[in-house]
Amino acid sequence: MTAVVTRFAPSPTGYLHIGGARTALFNWLYARGRGGKFLLRIEDTDRARSTPEASAAILKGMDWLGLDFDGEVISQFDRADRHAEVANELLSKGAAYKCFSTQDEIETFREAARAAGTSTHFQSPWRGADPSSYPDAPYVVRLKSATTGETVIHDEVQGDVRIKNENLDDMVLLRSDGTPVYMLAVVVDDHDMGVTHVIRGDDHLNNAARQIGIYSAMGWDLPVYAHIPLIHGPDGKKLSKRHGALGVEEYQAMGYCSAGMRNYLARLGWSHGDDEFFSDAQAKEWFGTDGIGKSPARFDFKKLENICGQHNAVTDDAALLHEIQLYRQSAGLPALNDVQSQRLKAALYCLKERAKTFPELLDKAHFALIEGPVDVEDKAAKHLDTVSRGILRTLTPQLQNVSWTRDELEAVLNRFAEENGMKFGKLAGPLRAALAGRAATPSVFDMMLVLGRDVSLDRLNQAASKGDS
């Protein structure tokens, strides 16, 4: 049985688009779930638009998504000589021909065809010409496409797609300057790389019919095709900037976790029963082209947030802290220092199940990240009136020597509230304001445990003395 080989082949003309990221994910899941290889090819033949920065952005996006690939990155441009070699082999086999028609002649043909209401596919007069009649002039190399019958694309998602060969033109393989065209390069690269399954957007479906002509002319085995529908926005229209972020790196900078992003993208156009939340291991085991739908998937930020929240909740604290640091770097925020990192890691147990994104998590962790005096917000300041500060002054000495455990802290604080004729909620307000400077915070006990005795008491003393002359 042939080992599975898939590939992701982006053009480096910008960021890693969210649609491209899903294509890469599908190829990665298909290969990894079958013990196969997942390869990366940068289709950089368009030298005017391809940039090293865009290639770096693609690699960075894949790294964030955790989509590791096998072997080295393959540059399509670097393989131009091999592409030309195949075109010349097709020439020698009589499966391609030299066409000396000029652009003016081609346009004249098309104008006449439009006027007559016939096909504008150029019919080159050089297709059956005797080589002895060739002029000393620039030429392109064209594939001799079949003119009768039909080409059938056996597609794992779309089913059998039939295209009449009379609707396919003799496409150019080599330009007049000898450089190969994209359509030829893709086929040669996929063949040479041993690609067994081509999983890509359905905007390439028509390309498949023309590419099959090259495979057939060379006598090469066809890959298995699976053309997946594009991603639409919530309004049902093709995903664009007006719907929100398009580049993968933007989602990292917005604070979505990579595991949640993988999970959500996997579910975008593919399903496994009613399963919404799953691990990488489950996705690799379950993923197959039979679960891909034919209709465009709709991107839903709410679903993405919910999935990310579930992954945050089950992620190991050390791994979560590491990704939060990477998020801050991506978002242009200063790195957390050692003290902040230690406190945040200690606080994750009481925060990560309540936050869908990293900005939300870090906002809840505000109390742990404060350095120096606590800046009290207006909403919390009302809890630090004269009476409340007096309560804190009375309470603080009683916390000096207690065992700093949750049970002991709950016992002391509840007993203090009861002895002073108040409900615990009345005591919690001043404590939140003192410890975090906010009215809405995690549990008072969680904050005290994370901060520790010295910092907690220091903040309580500072709050108690506010307003003193």
TrEMBL record:
<keyword id="KW-0030">Aminoacyl-tRNA synthetase</keyword>
<comment type="subunit">
    <text>Monomer.</text>
</comment>
<dbReference type="GO" id="GO:0008270">
    <property type="term" value="F:zinc ion binding"/>
</dbReference>
<protein>
    <recommendedName>
        <fullName>Glutamate--tRNA ligase</fullName>
        <ecNumber>6.1.1.17</ecNumber>
    </recommendedName>
</protein>
<keyword id="KW-0963">Cytoplasm</keyword>
<feature type="short sequence motif" description="'KMSKS' region">
    <location>
        <begin position="238"/>
        <end position="242"/>
    </location>
</feature>
<dbReference type="InterPro" id="IPR001412">
    <property type="entry name" value="aa-tRNA-synth_I_CS"/>
</dbReference>
<keyword id="KW-0436">Ligase</keyword>
<feature type="short sequence motif" description="'HIGH' region">
    <location>
        <begin position="10"/>
        <end position="20"/>
    </location>
</feature>
<dbReference type="GO" id="GO:0006424">
    <property type="term" value="P:glutamyl-tRNA aminoacylation"/>
</dbReference>
<keyword id="KW-0067">ATP-binding</keyword>
<dbReference type="InterPro" id="IPR045462">
    <property type="entry name" value="aa-tRNA-synth_I_cd-bd"/>
</dbReference>
<dbReference type="GO" id="GO:0005524">
    <property type="term" value="F:ATP binding"/>
</dbReference>
<dbReference type="InterPro" id="IPR004527">
    <property type="entry name" value="Glu-tRNA-ligase_bac/mito"/>
</dbReference>
<dbReference type="InterPro" id="IPR033910">
    <property type="entry name" value="GluRS_core"/>
</dbReference>
<keyword id="KW-0547">Nucleotide-binding</keyword>
<dbReference type="GO" id="GO:0004818">
    <property type="term" value="F:glutamate-tRNA ligase activity"/>
</dbReference>
<comment type="function">
    <text>Catalyzes the attachment of glutamate to tRNA(Glu) in a two-step reaction: glutamate is first activated by ATP to form Glu-AMP and then transferred to the acceptor end of tRNA(Glu).</text>
</comment>
<dbReference type="InterPro" id="IPR000924">
    <property type="entry name" value="Glu/Gln-tRNA-synth"/>
</dbReference>
<dbReference type="InterPro" id="IPR008925">
    <property type="entry name" value="aa_tRNA-synth_I_cd-bd_sf"/>
</dbReference>
<dbReference type="InterPro" id="IPR020058">
    <property type="entry name" value="Glu/Gln-tRNA-synth_Ib_cat-dom"/>
</dbReference>
<dbReference type="InterPro" id="IPR014729">
    <property type="entry name" value="Rossmann-like_a/b/a_fold"/>
</dbReference>
<feature type="domain" description="Aminoacyl-tRNA synthetase class I anticodon-binding">
    <location>
        <begin position="337"/>
        <end position="463"/>
    </location>
</feature>
<feature type="binding site">
    <location>
        <position position="241"/>
    </location>
    <ligand>
        <name>ATP</name>
    </ligand>
</feature>
<comment type="similarity">
    <text>Belongs to the class-I aminoacyl-tRNA synthetase family. Glutamate--tRNA ligase type 1 subfamily.</text>
</comment>
<dbReference type="Pfam" id="PF19269">
    <property type="entry name" value="Anticodon_2"/>
</dbReference>
<dbReference type="Pfam" id="PF00749">
    <property type="entry name" value="tRNA-synt_1c"/>
</dbReference>
<dbReference type="GO" id="GO:0005829">
    <property type="term" value="C:cytosol"/>
</dbReference>
<dbReference type="InterPro" id="IPR020751">
    <property type="entry name" value="aa-tRNA-synth_I_codon-bd_sub2"/>
</dbReference>
<feature type="domain" description="Glutamyl/glutaminyl-tRNA synthetase class Ib catalytic">
    <location>
        <begin position="4"/>
        <end position="305"/>
    </location>
</feature>
<keyword id="KW-0648">Protein biosynthesis</keyword>
<dbReference type="GO" id="GO:0000049">
    <property type="term" value="F:tRNA binding"/>
</dbReference>
<dbReference type="InterPro" id="IPR049940">
    <property type="entry name" value="GluQ/Sye"/>
</dbReference>
